[in-house]
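Worked Example 4.2. Read the sequence first, then its structure tokens.
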Amino acid sequence: MDKKELTEQEIRTRYITPAVKNAGWQEHQIREEYQLTAGRVIARHNTCIRDTNTIKRADYVLFYNFHTPIAVIEAKDNKHKISDGMQQALGYAEMLNIPFIFSSNGDGFIFHNKYSGENEKIEKEISLLDFPSPDKLMDIYKQYNNIDSAKEKQLSSSYYTENDKIPRYYQLNAINNTYNAIINGEKRVFLVMATGTGKTYVAFQIAWRLWIAGIKKRILFLADREALRNQTYTGDFSPFKENMTIVTNRKVDKSYQIYLALYQSITGQNDTKNIFKQFSKDFFDLVIVDECHRGSASEDSQWREVLEYFDSASQIGLTATPKENKEVSNISYFGEPVYTYSLKQGIEV
């Protein structure tokens, strides 16, 4: 059969997938029809639904390891030029924070390398036989990001997978960006995610990766509502099991590694009510503040007092609505967000 008569799926099956596998990519590293979005939200008959016609899927996303997407491939049938999928692939790569982008019509690949050097072309055509191996792409990635062997070992720590729940692309971006900031030595990290996009789940996955890698061994999660704290304990954070406890307004048990607390229950007007001071200042090496816009950034707030007491710990601020005014500034305390996923993005994608 004439190659130009083949469908896009046939081009993928006969030419693109074999080229990728021949380069050393394993089955579990190749994710086809990788769904990025659920479709644009539209109003209909006094309700909101997702328009399934606007769902975005990448033809291929290649993962170096379970949590690191490193390349995207957009396929077209052979009636198209080899480069015709590039613009679409670049859009997906932007969403996924991916540096290596490929377009193919089955004749070869156009390779777009965001990490190309000064004397290198950012785009070049390569044959089906020259598709790069996982290690070749990862070597470029490590060199560009100054990742040495020690940091590479830290990056190998994966998120929790035993409940079969897989982070959506924006959650994975939030997890990876925050994790990378922490292992690169950032002391304060700010993360902005719209309500309903899984902030607490993201917080758990960040904490899990840092904890399981032995990078952060004692973690304090601060909430402002009892219902949220309890839901966190029985829900997203439950895989910590017997390593986790809830801090109440009495003498603390220092034998745990993960602590969930209400700031109201560990602070007060005098030292007898400042339960957090039962811990030494260096007891925690990570403090996560949920809904940090509610007052932790204010210099005279009770949360701020807790953060300053544990100032040797890395601190992560999570919010859906960052607060910026003369009295309160999340950014002045935590810094610019390492990742933002807005309500507008959630509705439009």
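Now turn to a second chain, presented in exactly the same format:
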Amino acid sequence: MSLVTRKAPKFKAQAVMADNSFEEISLSQYRGKYVILFFYPLDFTFVCPTEIIAFDKHLDEFEKLGCQVIGVSVDSQFSHWAWKNTPVEKGGIGNIRYPLVADMTKKISKKYGVLLKDAGVALRGLFLIDKEGVVRHQVVNDLGLGRSVEEALRVLKALQHLEEYGEVCPADWHEGEEAMQPTAEGVAHYLAEHAS
């Protein structure tokens, strides 16, 4: 099920915050910002900490682009807290600086279409939500396949370029590269310059 071009499903849930406090957060409190909302299967597992730490390492870049990163799993906020307070060298994630949402009822995972019912966990879904609360990009990976944080940043920058300049971004576009006008002439010009 694709949510792209649709309003992102609303939610309210407990989360462990950057300062290790517990807080109820909602998607609507981030209206006016871009949001990377990513789902992962479980705390204290294998691929998950590599992704969570990678998002934290790139957090300053996301914040410079006006983007809030939020992680979600079906674990409790207490499990999230324990994982944050477990040293990295013992399989913990350390002092992650963005919220980790507790989806214990699995309602959020279900709304976003990433709940793997038989396993009772979320697939590795990632949703880029724009300032108006509309899903503009989504990707869902199987449990054993980690996501690229750099690709999430690239797509965010491409969306911002599209919004600012009205130019569409071709395959493998990166910030600073030529984009194209969404016209027959625009694509012809772009392909003449770049296809060979």
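Notes for the reader: The longest helix spans residues 149-165. Residues 29 and 73 are 19 Å apart (CA to CA).
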